[in-house]
Amino acid sequence: MARELEKTNVVVAGLGWAGSIVAAELSKDGKNVVGLERGEEKKTEDYLTAHDEYRFAVGHEMMQDLSRETLTYRNSTDEEALPMRRYGAFLIGTDVGGGGVHWNGDTWRYHPYDFEIKSMTDETYGEDKLTDDYLIQDWGITYEELEPYYLKYELNSGVSGEQNPMGPERREPYPTPPLKEVPVLTEYKEACERLGYQPFMIPASTISQQFVNPDGQTINACQYCGFCEKFGCEWGAKASPIVTTIPTAKETGNFELRTHANVVEIVKEDDEVTGVLYIDTLTQEEVFQPADVVVVTSHTTNNTKLLLHSDLGTPYNPETGEGSVGKNYCLHITPEVTGFFDKEFNTVTGAGALGICIDEFNNDNFDHTDLDFIHGANIALKQTGKRPIEQNTVPPGVKNWGAEFKKESIKAFTQSLSSHAQMITLPHRNNYLSLDPTYKDDYGRPLLRVTYDLTDHDRAAHDFIGQKIEEILTEMGAVETHRRELPEHFDIFPAHNDHIVGGTIIGADPETSVVNNYLQMWDEDNVFVIGGSNFPHNGGYNPTGTVGALAYRAADGIKMYLEDNRQLAEAGEVAGAN
């Protein structure tokens, strides 16, 4: 029998960017908020000795423990799914702040085309541009509606950047100037310009100068130490929940942070969601936290898993096309080309989002009439800081051991550069999430099962973008280039992809989506689900800025729900609802 606690206004399951934004905004509004996180609370000072590549980047110390909770994956329904035993394609964070602590800091706005991809594609290229197997759909919200929330997230994080020449005009400039344009970025920029492109600096939450956000939280200036992705920032210069939103929530006096609390079920009694059930990971005790509103803000995989475990919404069936929970699972495929040069570059220092990029082959910025794909990718060269274990490159044909490897890797460490792209992937009817019938987690509950394989669309876009990257590095002076090719089938390891999305998608139609444009479940009006799981498809940018914007909008929706206690999607009853 679970121990029952005192009821609260709002319970938030997961305290990464989405959960901490909701917690901060609602507690500032006077609501009582309980935030549940399965891991520990970490602060900036806990990462003062975190420059350990083996411990964090190879050993994945900041990630979900796969020996206790993992997932299974397969390429098709004809195969048996097997458990993921090591990280590769994506990283599931744990501890307070989640992925918002170990991220690189690339902070993008999705393009207006992304939000209306179905209607805009049909209008430009006709309804038969793609086969019916690709489940693209509009998001049920426009860029214009989300734009104020993008700005709010950028102000929270002090984002450093400049106007994208091929993006929508900004109402206000970025809060802080771009990061430093180091020599290697200048050379890449000049090569792009010679090819007729318009390069610009990547918008970064590893910020260029100290900034005090509207809530009074200070984010420090980046020191360019080169330890961002998979690491916590020792200087408090990477905007994260532990630097911004968590302190803001705590200062209100209305927020309770509860760690070692692993939410395993959303509880529904007499056709009404009444709270959440969690496991105290220190004592293994089951605890029931009642709440007026339940907010699910964990990783993409865990958001979907929690709804499926709780029998909320209708699971997606790939054979009939019915149901939406688990539908539209996508990830980022990352075309990458390594160039080998007869000159040296000093790239040991850097920052997670220090880079230069182009958008000529992203969104619908170019004509796709004669191409076998839509959308595209943002192409970039980044100086994230070069580390010897995972970034030890050698030319093709060199064995990864022995005297030749040592000689070539020492040479290539300073004489090679890799340029990559964040590439669109579209949802396919056979790529989805479900519960595994065989394997269970540490609590005896079914693991989440991923069914995913590469598509013809993936291959066509990957080949096109890879060629464009190769041309830039050749123009930059590479004497040899090596393009990473896609395997025959998707494999969760090694990592040539990341940023998984889908499973609890946003939309305007309850028949084809899980949540409305305030991220409120169609089927349960006091449950809000927020995160990358809301994306109906992946775009050509990193997703975090869009997750943050959606979280700020959802916080407004939850405030209105608590005040009016009525369905936000009902036409005309709430200003801004579609």
TrEMBL record:
Enzyme class: oxidoreductase
One Pfam family hit: GMC_oxred_C
Region Disordered: start-end pairs: 160-179
Keywords linked to the UniProt accession: FAD, Flavoprotein, Oxidoreductase
Domain annotation Glucose-methanol-choline oxidoreductase N-terminal: ranges: 217-333
Glucose-methanol-choline oxidoreductase C-terminal domain segment(s): 427-551
GO molecular function terms attached to this record: gluconate 2-dehydrogenase (acceptor) activity
Top-rank taxon, per record: Bacteria
InterPro entries xref list: FAD/NAD-bd_sf, GMC_OxRdtase_N, GMC_OxRtase_C
EC number: 1.1.99.3
Family assignment from sequence similarity: Belongs to the GMC oxidoreductase family.
Protein name: Gluconate 2-dehydrogenase alpha chain
Species this protein is from: Jeotgalicoccus aerolatus
